[in-house]
Design goal:
Elements: E1 6-13, E2 28-32, H1 35-47, H2 52-61, E3 67-74, E4 78-85, E5 94-101, H3 105-108, E6 115-120, H4 130-143, E7 147-154, E8 159-166, H5 194-214, H6 219-225
Length: 228
């Protein structure tokens, strides 16, 4: 690489799916600047396929990997970098950008707390991050699903999208709770509040538990019908 150094990145078939991200489980080697170092970096990436952490993650997630590839890219020395989620984890109508100054490796490994920018998907205009948002939405459309995209900006101000994966956990709709007096309105004619529920629930559990004991049900059988 006459212009500088390389980054050697692992790319296993089956990682970065919608079910599991494998982020940080397989090795990547930065700032590789000689052929000997390049050979060693490729072998290190391949070997990480069988590493203890990668094997444990595969087993715990129930997600197999089927083979291992290695990607060699030009190493960019960024002035800024991070990730952009084309659908924010907590708001499906927004994009979420997390970034740090310098290389985003410090964000990925957790050694630096990122700054956060949230933009609307419908009209993501921003003096600094508008072009990034536009490129990310275009990539989402091309890939056919919301994306988790790693990006960097080099010293000349050029934006590079260096990796993209499906968002592992899709945003969930806001959870709503409806309080009612169904099945207990003979005792509580008004809708039950959270405070009353915390009291009434224990009372009803003891009441029906005692009825079950009177009919000869064992404690094991009663435990099976308890919520916890």
């Amino acid at each position: 690489n006459k212009s500088g150094s390389w980054i050697v990145r692992s790319s296993a078939v089956g990682e970065d799916s919608a079910a599991a991200s494998f982020a940080g489980q397989l090795d990547s080697v930065l700032h590789v600047d000689t052929l000997d170092a390049l050979r060693s970096a490729v072998l290190q990436c391949w070997a990480s396929y069988w590493s203890e952490r990668a094997l444990f993650y595969r087993l715990s997630q129930g997600v197999p990997l089927r083979s291992m590839g290695v990607i060699i890219q030009e190493m960019i020395t960024p002035t800024q970098g991070g990730v952009i989620f084309t659908r924010a984890p907590d708001d499906a109508d927004s994009l979420r950008i997390e970034y740090v100054d310098g290389h985003p490796e410090s964000l990925v490994n957790g050694s630096q707390t990122p700054q956060i920018v949230v933009l609307p998907r419908r009209d993501p205009e921003h003096p600094e991050f508008g072009p990034l948002a536009a490129q990310a939405l275009a990539l989402e459309k091309a890939c056919g699903s919301p994306q988790d995209i790693e990006w960097v900006v080099d010293s000349a101000g050029k934006l590079w999208l260096v990796q993209s994966r499906p968002i592992t956990v899709p945003p969930r709709p806001p959870r709503s709770v409806v309080w009612s007096n169904v099945n207990v309105n003979e005792n509580y004619p008004d809708p039950i509040s959270p405070l009353l529920y915390s009291i009434a629930r224990e009372a009803y559990e003891n009441y029906f538990g005692n009825i079950g004991r009177a009919f000869g049900f064992s404690e094991t059988m009663l435990d099976e019908v308890r919520p916890y």
